[in-house]
Amino acid sequence: MIEIDLRPSAPDAKGQYIQEMGSVPGWFLEVDAHVFVGMDSVQHARGIHGDLLEIGVYYGKSAILLGYCVRPGEHLVVCDVFEELGDLPEESVAEHNTYHSELRQAEFRRQYRRFHSELPEVIAAPSTSLDRDRLAGRFRFIHIDGGHAYEVVREDILTARRLLGKGGVVVFDDWSQPHCPGVALAVWEEYLRGELIPLCLTSTKLYATWDSGGLTSQDLDEWAAAQSGIEMSYAYRLAGRDVRSYVQKKADGLRPGQPVALSPESALRRALRQIVPPILARWGRL
Asked: Is it the case that residue 11 has pLDDT exceeding 60?
């Protein structure tokens, strides 16, 4: 039996980065940052090795954290079209122009080098260009946050399944966001095929595996239960499988969702966030 140290880890490079990641443009919840680290620690305890892949990096907010999870002999690979749209489908071009029109590969590299001396392997091309045969079984962790059109996500799912090795984990971003219906359709369609095993959920990401002999939801729940900053939901029964959602506990001790009195300024900002265009809110202007 393999013993897993479930105690919160002492401050290290990963924890330090999580405290500083607000300085990197992009969208990556603190709870997900902690789950990334937790997933990495559980994989390490289980003796699971392999490279890490992120599809869709923006300016590297989550890729930088994955860079700290790379162990000796492992590599981080990132794939993004950056400013080269090429032959992307119409919906993907519209999404890029709405949310990522200012993205440049040079800026991703600059942000990444703020925290790491060496860059990851960068594939500046659509994720459909990834060679499934050459890369088969190479990865233990794949984070999918690329194009959100159904056809694109479906192809990324097929790629991830082929590229993951034994004990590998896939993370789907925006699985529950109303502005990304193609992601939800592709993910749940794959789940209903019967072989995708959910491990845990957050409000923006779904963590899962196809390896029935790999990590389990119980592994992650045991890890999460030992984290003072994470709160778990009751178990959701989804077509025969149980899975829990995780949220970050408030620093003031309030339970997630518990009402709290807002100052007039905070109340106004919250109200404005409900009506301004999403792109403004995403840039943190409100």
From this structure: no
DSSP string, 105-139: HHHHHHHHHTT-SS--EEE-S-GGGS-HHHHTT-E
Cβ 23 vs Cβ 110: under 8 Å: no
- How far is CA 206 from its chain centroid? 8
* CB of 149 closer than 8 Å to CB of 89: yes
All structural domains of the chain, each given as residue ranges with its CATH number in brackets, are 13-249 (3.40.50.150), 256-286 (no CATH)
- Name residue 232's beta-bridge partners: 246
Tell me how far apart the alpha carbons of residues 34 and 94 are, in angstroms, rounded to a whole number: 32
Nearest to 215 by CA among 193, 230, 199: 199
Exposure of 252 by Cβ count < 10 A (0-12 exposed, 13-18 middle, 19+ buried)? exposed
Phi and psi (nearest 5°) for 246?
-115, 140
- Residue in the block written with tokens 């729940």: 221
274/134 Cα distance (integer angstroms) = 46
User: Could you give the CA distance from residue 148 to residue 182 in angstroms, rounded to a whole number?
Assistant: 6
DSSP assignment of 199-260 equals EEE-SSEEEEES-TTS--HHHHHHHHHT-TTEEE-PPEEETTEEE-BEEEPPTTSPPTT---
pLDDT confidence of residue 197: 97
Query: pLDDT, tens digit, for every residue of 166-219?
Result: 999 999 999 998 889 999 999 999 999 999 999 999 999 999 999 999 999 999
How does strand 230-232 pair with strand 246-248? antiparallel
